Structure formats: structure tokens, C-alpha cells
């Protein structure tokens, strides 16, 4: 185990890189998109996992009589994923048993008060490097067309956090850790609360609460995989060539199990006449589910011919519930 803080951070990050190479994570995400499947990695390593309500703890790593990890069911999905990655780090780095409370969130690398428990620092650094490798940020920025300079915008940092499966705060701190933003920009970003970003995205639609996240999806998300929670909403913002008779078929969206709660059009070019508009649709899953959403832009009288299409694989069954993880359930279904 490392003997100082900097060495512990390096050791944890290097261990995460080794596991990524072992699991070929970068190639897998490069093909299919999405985030790092932490629970899938735990399953791939045959590491026993127990999900259950835990009083006063986020998770635990046990090494005797056989290695195993526990993760709470009483926290949002981003915290569950970080906790699982932290416990995975303990296992992969052959640490001593550990009972982990919310201090693991305060000890994240580059956060205040790093502390001097270097086993825990190693596990925290492993968790960040495994969940949010720099190449994952680069992949999503390239897909969305985001520049490094745009990462200073709260709405961009928030949408990035959803795609990499981390909390908004952890994303901002990690951007600083990778020197993609300055300390001053990080602090400015952290002054913006995710709730205000959700309100801005939803315009005048008011959900029952703001516990869920709000995804902004565009044509750049074609073929993407999104991993969210049952309370999430999404806003589709798609160019529509209505002047030529082409309309996005929202019946397909509803057939995929989503309720349309708001539908509006915005001018794409205020000075153009008869040009395309922006179709802005706010939708919510009618139940916790996973599947594929497909939409076509087509003329109603020529339904067989699509001018454009959008297909997204989604999983809105989070957070993890008591029992088997979602990754384990998927594996069992695929093997059946």
C-alpha cells in the first residue's frame, strides 16, 4: 500500500487502468457507447455482490472467508456506482476489509480534506479512474461535438455527468483533476445546482419532484446507450423538416413506453421561410424499463420512407434494487 497521498492516487489510477485493459472496456464502449458498467465488471470478476439497505454505510468490502462486497440500495445511482467502484478497488488492490460510510464521497481525489488513510485513498482514486477515465470524457465530447472550452458551461458539464454515470459534483472535480478546467471554473460550476439546470431544460413543465435527471437528446445521440433511473425525464431536440412535410413520429415514442408530457416547435432559423424547425419533445418513461426507442422523421403519407431516424438503447430501471444487480439480471436473461 502507498505511504503518501500522491502515491496512493497514482496507485489507484494505475490499477483502474489495468482492469480496463483486462476487460477491454474502452473498445466495448467505443462500439456501443454508454458508461463504464461497474456492476458488470464486478460480475465479470466473479466477485460476490450483495445489494441491500445499509444503516450508516454506503458499502463494504469483506475478504474473509471469501471476498465479497456490499452496496446500499438507499442512495442515487451515481453514488451506488461510485461505492461499487470503491469496493471493487479494495478487492482488485487486495486491501484489508473496509466498512465505508459517506466519508468516501468527501475523500474523493482532489476534494478537500483528503485524509491520511491511504488504503481508502487508493480505493477512491481507483473508483474515479475506473468510472471516469479521461478517454471516456473524450469519447462523449467527440460524439456531442463539445470542445474543452465548453466544459466550463454548467449545462454541458451536467449532460456529460449523465452520460458517464457520475454525479455532477464528481464530474466537475474530475474535469479539474484532468486539467480540463481550472480550479476557479470548477468552483463556479459547483455553485450551480443540478436542480436549476433541470428547471431550465424542462421550460414550463413541472414534474412532481426533481429527484430524477433530465437528459437532453439530439441527433448526435443516434445509436447511443443511456443508463438512467426510473424517475428520469428526457428532452428530445430534433431538427424537423416540416416545410417539406416531414414530421417526427411520436407514436413510435409512445409505443416504446414513454409518455409525451410536452411537445413544441422552435424556429431553427428565425429569418428563414419554410425551412426546418426544431421539434422539442419532453417525455417520461411510464414504468421502470429497459429497451430500445426508435423514431423516424417521415411524411405521414409516405410512412415507408424516413428522412431521418433516431435509435437509442435505454435502461431506466435504476437505481439498483435489493437482490441481483441489473448487470447480473441481464447476464441471466441473455444466457437463458
UniProtKB/TrEMBL annotation:
<dbReference type="InterPro" id="IPR052345">
    <property type="entry name" value="Rad_response_metalloprotease"/>
</dbReference>
<keyword id="KW-0789">Thiol protease inhibitor</keyword>
<dbReference type="GO" id="GO:0004869">
    <property type="term" value="F:cysteine-type endopeptidase inhibitor activity"/>
</dbReference>
<keyword id="KW-0646">Protease inhibitor</keyword>
<protein>
    <submittedName>
        <fullName>Chagasin family peptidase inhibitor I42</fullName>
    </submittedName>
</protein>
<dbReference type="Pfam" id="PF06114">
    <property type="entry name" value="Peptidase_M78"/>
</dbReference>
<dbReference type="Pfam" id="PF09394">
    <property type="entry name" value="Inhibitor_I42"/>
</dbReference>
<feature type="domain" description="Proteinase inhibitor I42 chagasin">
    <location>
        <begin position="230"/>
        <end position="313"/>
    </location>
</feature>
<feature type="domain" description="IrrE N-terminal-like">
    <location>
        <begin position="68"/>
        <end position="175"/>
    </location>
</feature>
<dbReference type="InterPro" id="IPR036331">
    <property type="entry name" value="Chagasin-like_sf"/>
</dbReference>
<dbReference type="InterPro" id="IPR018990">
    <property type="entry name" value="Prot_inh_I42_chagasin"/>
</dbReference>
<dbReference type="InterPro" id="IPR010359">
    <property type="entry name" value="IrrE_HExxH"/>
</dbReference>
